[in-house]
Amino acid sequence: MKEEVTAAGGGPPDAAAGAPLDRGLLLGIYRNIYATRRFELQCIELYREGFIRGYLHPYLGEEAIAAGVCAALRRSDYIVSTHRGHGHCISKGADLKRMMAEIMGRADGYCAGRGGSMHISSRKDNNLGANGIVGGGIPIATGAAMGIKVKGTDQVVVDFFSDGASNNGVFAESLNLAGVFQLPIVYVLENNHYAVSTPVECSTGCCDLAGRGPAYGVPGICVDGNDALQVYEETRRAVERARRGEGPTLIEAKTFRHGGHHINDPGLYMDAQKLAEWKARDPILLMRRVIAEEPAVAEIEARVDRELEAAVEFGKNSPEPSVEEFLAAISD
Amino acid sequence: MAELMYREALNRALFEEMERDPLVFVMGETIGERGGSYKVTEGLLKRFGPRRVLDTPIAEASFTGMAVGAALVGCRPVVEILFIDFAMLVMDQIVNQAAKYHFISGGQGRVPMVLRTQGGAGNGLAAQHSQSLEALFYHVPGLKVVMPATPGDACGLLKAAIRDDDPVIFIEHKLLYMTKGEVPDGEYLVPLGKADIKKPGRDITLITYSRMTLTCLEAAAALEKEGISVEVVDLRSLVPLDKETILESARRTGRVVVVHEAARRGGVGGDIAAMIMEEAYDDLDGPVVRIAGRNTPIPYNLNIEKVCIPSVEDVIAGVLKLV
After folding, report:
1. Chain A residues closer than 8 Å to B240 by CB
2. What is the mean pLDDT of chain A?
3. Fold topology of B196-322
4. Domain range spanning residue A225?
5. Do A138 and A171 contact (CB within 8 A), yes or no?
6. What's the whole-number mean pLDDT along residues A247-260?
7. Do A170 and B61 touch (CB under 8 A)?
8. CA distance B53 to chain A (A)
């Protein structure tokens, strides 16, 4: 049975609206936002020092989306991530040590140093991984949802992707497929306003990308992506619907990248005024206001700082992958 | 031992594997109600229901990517791409996603999926429905490539492909679907990566696969009458490649012709020829010869289509060059 199509921006009524959120949940969300922020800043530093190479796409400014979304998921639920995927990985429960080792290309990394930042995954958390192809994860996430349906479990998939990916053909195909087969999936479109350097206004003729959902029978909802609680609330409802077998949802979380596309892109093309406006609504500031009590915040921050310090040490001390073992494993 | 058509043998393999393992499911265009364009999936919908036999919209890139995702969460999807030509729409999902996942995840996950498709010329289907594109997949590390020539191999290899833990590109030939052959009763599996000497011989080795196996067997029979003993090695799998059988035969006969329908330039034959010359040079009595398709898009008109792909006469001429 298909859910009635909801117009962009209007979600279904929520019986629990206004109910106070669990304090542990709020602190957990804040932990993930803060950990991601610090992790990304640390990665940038390590990149400058030569410990990290290749492409590094910081999630700075967008942290509330991953943190809010993953707070609505179970460990057994799946996520599919993007090239800008550190925040997803952290919020789904990854160990910062093994993440850092991977991003440094070391043997103890989640992917044994073969994936790096752009391909990081942590299967213990059912994070199916980041992707170097914009839009490449959308069909995979859709298929994971199909796999769940075939297996008959009550898991749900969250697919993270960007405004840029939503202009790729597989977005249309996959939403249509998810609508046809009523798959247990939540598409989280992270609209950070830039596809590499192209502003979203120049890459699409429509303003609310969530509006594309109803065209495929998939309810579309817009949220403020810097407000982790709004993200959490809408995701929770979408996940519950998916778990009940009521099909997919498209959530567009509007946010703004704090820097260029990747570490070596200064982002000079970015709209300075808009950036300042979004930075005034930094996800960290918004979440601190919610928590209000300073001791808890300070405690979380201190713990994350220690964790991160240990992660950097762990990464630096982790051995390089063995060239001999690598070559021995190649069959021709 | 049952005599089945190639398409019936494939159908039997799908039935048996879906019966055996509830995590096997099939997906593709018009495969359910209609039973597939070549009837390979006939009867599956009735037996296994719409949860495991999915008629998809025409959205190759995404439903192939869905197979990748479903495989990652533990299923064993078999996706059908109606023509290998349409597989060009799915190259990101096959080349960048399916082929890479096991590697880039550091072994955290595998992609046990099969992409079934069919290629080849000979029916006047013109340039976008007649290609032989196996070399594209053969070139990509992380993929397995299987191209059966007989009903028995079709059945045994498809079952093995479904049980394999890596992505397998399973390429059928449109002119083989109605050919008949024996398929052993009971559980019949043909391991990937094992060539089959379809006809033993002493004087020269023909290395081939898919429909060209039949062409080579016909040529071998004709040459036998001329007193030339021809060995026909059917590779069955291109990846993994059975180098051992190839090299053993090459060393024994000293003369090798590689035959395939795909265009010669950049074809699999060139790679096999190079491998033989690198590894068995001292045992060869002459250069390894390639008999392959012309470097042209396949035309519609049957007379000019015919000359694009190797004929029995072409194979005979190639052999006579060497002996």
Report:
1. 331
2. 93
3. Rossmann fold (3.40.50)
4. 23-244+256-315
5. yes
6. 97
7. yes
8. 10
